[in-house]
Each structure stands twice: as structure tokens, then as C-alpha cells.
Amino acid sequence: MFTTLLIANRGEIACRVAATARRLGIRTIAVYSDADAGAKHVVSCDAAVHIGASAARDSYLKSETILQAALAHGAQAIHPGYGFLSENADFANACAKAGISFVGPPASAIAAMGSKSASKTLMEKAGVPLVPGYHGDNQDPDFLKQQADVIGYPVMIKASAGGGGKGMRVVASAEDFASALASCKRESASSFDDDRVLIERYVQKPRHIEIQVFADSHGNAVYLFERDCSVQRRHQKVIEEAPAPGMTEERRRAMGEAAVAAARAVNYVGAGTVEFIVEPSGRFYFMEMNTRLQVEHPVTEMITGLDLVEWQLRVASGEALPLTQEQLTRCGHSIEARIYAENPDKNFLPSVGTLAYLALPPHTAFSNADIRVDGGVRMGDTISPFYDPMIAKLIVWGADRDQARARMVQALAQTQVVGVHTNVGFLTRLMMDQAFAAGDLDTGLIEQQRATLLPVPASASHEALALSVAALLLCETAAVSDDDPWARTDGWRLNGLYQRAFSCVDQEGARSCVLHRQGIDQVLEMDGERYAFGWRTAKSGNAVKNHSTGKDDNTPALYIELTLGHLAVTGTVVRRGERFDVFSSGVMTSLVLKDPLKHAADGQAEHSGGLTAPMPGKVIAVHVAVGDKVKRGQALLVMEAMKMEHTIAAPGEGTVKELLYGVGDQVGEGAALITLE
Questions:
Q1: What per-residue confidence (pLDDT) applies to 599?
Q2: Coil, strand or helix: which one is 184?
Q3: CB 446 within 8 A of CB 231
Q4: Domains of the chain and CATH, by start
Q5: Percent of the chain with pLDDT over 90
């Protein structure tokens, strides 16, 4: 076994590897960029090495710099995590030449499976079933369209070197093929430095089921059952679970044996995932093999009781697999949900900012408990535009799927994030969706259930309004000395009625909210309805540590229990100035409580007539010129952010008055891009 390991990655996977290595007595070395100085994975390791600027190409993708760091610090092995260099054959080869073990498959296996076209040819020879399509080298657009016409629409265009949903498009008709191909090639070149694509028949109502495989250098290979990853958005996995709902033992064995055959075909060593697309009939086809550990590997660990990172380290050090196929068992059901900094109400655009408050459900990290959290950020950290905006992974286990789903709903309700938008509410609705609950899964589930999964944002509930008012009153009371009764701000009067109006603003606009007090009796009037009102207990939450400055930020979190009419209401309220973020009954509500006098002179913001950037990114295409007349919905320009393309469309008819940015320009969130008349 190794004594020193360098982890060539960041975030939750780096923390995950560091935890397992520590348990095995292995010293770990972290690498970090400018943006990650002081990050959680850096302090999780025994030593850390700065490797460059914030952009991945200037740090985590600099293979020579990382290899030099490993040699300088006496590392015997490098664990690449997932993403970045984990599937880079040249890097694996360079490690071998330097005498450092690459915790992953040999370079030849990475190269063989790195090209979707070449891998499908290998799989065909190995007898693994394939989706009908074109996987050749001819990349002439006219030729590719001819192939699509022969296959029959709809077809799927895929980046040959792709993964993670990047460089993929579904094309419904011949008329749409050329534009989809061009967009796919641009995204593929940006993400993988390779614009080659393949064309396949698009399977209707498909399920995405993958098999976890493991092989060693002694000729042993096993499959550790399956994971269902059918719930996807933009071809990226949202929910993963194991085992797959409705899977029969016969099909599990057939898919497992096919996955092992795929691994053996390339002399595979280490952890890998063979991904299949499955028709409603149960017939399955090979899609691709990911030659690394997957983000969703914890659900396999939860049902098998195994540590797959430990298996990786043991296999990389030359040991044989710990178990044979016959010795592998599974128990119960596990579900994983990825908590992302993104805004579902704005087409899931990534959200950048500081985690002003972060509370996670009671859990055991990196262990087989009922609720597990794998995370790479802490309260006070910043979600930057440079990397994947994942905050944490929630993984739950249950005796069966229904219990696991119920535990996930509970865990999501206890997940509270302030400072960035998140998908927590969306994930909760997904867990409670009837189709998902029934196990009626396919990759189109989110689009099919869009109306219920992505409803029009509702106005703030009376419970949320009451909690925010109680929080404000508590903050005001806490700021006053208890020794001076004349300084009290709670509205107490010796005789007579006290009345106070609050200017509460939610996403719908101003809400009427008035507190009436006579003696010790309080009534809260909201939208014309009156409720007996009072709080029983309140306590402060944890202080927020800013990991850049090492100081506490002034962001109080209050846990409040109150009565509202005949209801007992509990919740957590995080106050930041006039903004109150309320968490109650699994729902987050953001409110602004304004001082009416302070804001009496505020006017309405004048509309500028411009279109703004939804997030930081780069302009990669401009489709209009000054003077062009445009129609509602017409594509004006395309931005790239976090390796995804986002089209800026005209909100209505007009004429282009000014183009404020050109192709290649970097723009910040909220920056005006185009002015229309």
C-alpha cells in the first residue's frame, strides 16, 4: 500500500479520497488554484501545493505541474478523482513513465474508451449490444446529415470525446440538423478540445442504467450491480439510485456480464462504469464507458457496504480485488441527490456567490449511515464561475425504495443554503412526484413533469411572513439593553393599543403586514387576515466563518417557534440587512422587510431597454448586427458559462440599437449585452 498520495482534484471528491486515505494511514497532498486557497479539500489533506490561477486550464488541467508537485513531495501515487485529468491517457502515461502509480486504468484503456466511436467498434467485436448509428471518422457535415437521414429521426448527436451531457443534442427533423451539429461541435471543442461527433438513433422513453465494474492487474473482474441514472436534465444526471427500480435478476446478470466483457475487451484495471441505454422492453445497448470513479458511486457503496475508493487504492498498489463476484451482496435501497448552486426558475442557470449560511442534515460523512453527505464547501466559501457549482451530495439509505425516498425528503428539508440559488426545492418536488414515486422512470421525466416540478413561484405564505416579522422583532430586542425599559422596541404600552406596519416585499411585490398589540396580547394582520401571534423560544444559529479572512461574518441565523392563530410554526430565519431568508416545512422563502421612512423617497428603477447576462461567462456567438430588426424569441447572441451554452433571445420585437460586447468578450452577471429600441 502507498504511504503518500497526491490528489489531483478538488471539491468533494478530493475530500472523499483524503478521508479514506487517512483511514488507511496514507499521507495525502492536495493541489489548489488561486480560487481554492483555503478550500475544504486543502485543509483536509496533510499538505497542499499551489498549482496556478483559478481557471482549470491554468491549474487543475496542468498535468506537468501536478506531476512535478507529486515528484517534489515524494508521492508514490496520484488519485485523479473525476473530471479534469481523470480520463486523460497522456497524463496516465506520464505518471507511469515517472514511476508514479496512476489510481485508475492504464493509458491504453482510457484511450480505447475515450473515443465514443472507437469504443463502440471495440464493443461490437466483444459482443456488447449497440444502438444503431454512425461511429466513423468522416466528419463532413453533409455526410453526417446523410447518415442521420438513413438512421431516421429523431437522432442523437454526441461528442465523440464527450461526457457529462456536454456536446449532446437531440435532433427531431432534418431541417434542424445543421444548426444542432454546429452547436454540438462548438460545445465539444470547448469542453474536450475535440469537435468530432457520432450519430445514433434516439431511443424513445429510454432509461439510463449503468453498471459499476472493477478489475485488477491479476485478471479478476467483477460488477457491483447497477445504478439507475434516468432522471436527467440536459443529459446530465440529477438523481441516481441503486438498485434500479423494476430490475430483474436475469437482466441484472446479463447487463453485469456485458459490462465485465466491455472491461475485459480493453484490459481494464481499477474502477469503471459501463453505461447502457435501456428500452421500455428491457433491451439494452452500450452507450459508453467512463474510465474513472463516478460522482454517483456512493449509492453503490451504501447498498454493498464497501468503500470503492479503498478498492481503488488497493488495486492501484497491486493487490487483487478483495471479493469475488459470488461474494458480492447488496442490501436495501440508496438514492443520491446533487445539491447545486443553480436557479431552476431561470432554466437552471448556475448561481455564483458566497455561502452566507449553510446547514446540512445530521449525517455521517464518507460512511454507511442512513443519511450521508459528501461535500467540498463550507459556510463562508464562495461558489465561483470557474468550476462545477456543486455544493454537496445527499445520499440516503433505506430498507426499500419508499423508505429511502422518504428519508431523502427529510434530508432535503434540513438542507438550508443562503447566498446562492439552489435546486433544493426542485429536488423535493421531484422526490414527491407521482411518476418518480412509482418508479416510472425515463430520461424525459423532468420535461414531462415540468408543470409540477417547475411551477410558477408562489407568493410568500403567511407562516413565512410571520417568521420574518418575529425574526426582525427578536433582532431589535437583542440590540437593546435589558436594563433600560424605556429603550424597549417591542411595542409594549402601559395602556392603549400599539400598531406597527411592516413593509414586506416578496417576489409578487408588497404585502400588507401589521402588528397590533394591546398589553401582552398580539395580533398579526396579513393581507387582511388576523392571527393571534407570539413566539415561545428562539436561539441563534452558528456563526458564519469567512474562510478568506478567518473572521466571523455578521449573518445571524435564528431558530424560531411561534404561534400563529391555531398553528404552531417553526423555522429558521437568516437575516442579511433587510433581506430575510426563511426556511420552514421544507420551503425556502426570501423576503425584504423595509423601513417605510427610509425608503419613502425610493422611486421606480427606470427600464434601460437592454438585455443582461444571466451569469458570468463569455460571448461565443453574435447573431445580429446594429440596425437589424428582430422578433420576439429570436436568438441574439450565445454565451458560454461553465462549459454550457446559453442563448440570449429577444423579449419582443424591436431594432438592435447597440451591441455592447463581441465574440470572445468576458461579461459579468447582470451586464447589459444588447440595447433594443
A1: 47
A2: helix
A3: yes
A4: 4-103 (3.40.50.20), 132-201 (3.30.1490.20), 332-456 (3.30.470.20), 462-594 (3.30.700), 610-676 (2.40.50.100)
A5: 67
The answer to whether the beta carbons of residues 518 and 492 sit under 8 Å apart is: no
Q: What is the 3-state secondary structure (H, E, C) of 355-401?
A: CCEEECCCCCCCCCCCEEEEECCCCCCEECCCCCCEEEEEEEEECCH
Question: Which of 528-545 are b and which e, b meaning 16 or more Cβ less than 10 Å from the residue's Cβ?
Answer: eeebebebeebeebeebe
For residue 179 the three cell numbers come to 444548426
Which of left, alpha, beta for 627 (phi over 0: left; psi -120 to 50: alpha)?
left
Backbone angles phi, psi at 47, to 5 degrees: -150, 165
Known catalytic residue: 292? yes
DSSP state of 106: -
| Residue 276 CB neighbour total at 10 angstroms | 24
pLDDT tier at 605, thresholds 50, 70, 90:
very low
pLDDT given at position 633: 84
DSSP 38: T
| Res. 610: pLDDT tops 70 | no
d(CA 13, CA 136): 35
Mean pLDDT of 150-178: 89
Distance CA(325)–CA(520), nearest Å, equals 71
pLDDT in tens, 470-499: 999 888 877 665 556 555 555 555 566 888
Across residues 408-414, what is the average pLDDT?
Answer: 96
Return the SS3 of 270. strand
Q: Give the closest residue to 443 by CA, choosing from 237, 661, 186.
A: 237
Identify the band that residue 415 occupies on the pLDDT scale cut at 50, 70 and 90: very high
3-class DSSP string for 463-528? HHHHHHHHHHHHHHHHCCCCCCHHHCCCCCCCCCEEEEEEEEEECCEEEEEEEEEECCEEEEEECC
pTM metric for this prediction: 0.81
pLDDT digits over 564-603, tens only?
A: 999 999 999 999 888 899 999 999 999 988 755 444 444 3
Give 187's Cβ-side CA count (13 Å radius): 29
Residues whose CB falls within 8 Å of the CB of residue 371, separated by 6 or more in sequence, listed in order: 361, 362, 363, 364, 394, 395, 396, 397, 407, 410, 411
CA distance 261 to 282: 19
The average pLDDT across 193-222 equals: 94
Helix (H, G, I), strand (E, B) or coil at 452: helix
Q: Which entry of 196, 227, 292, 517 is annotated as an active-site residue?
A: 292
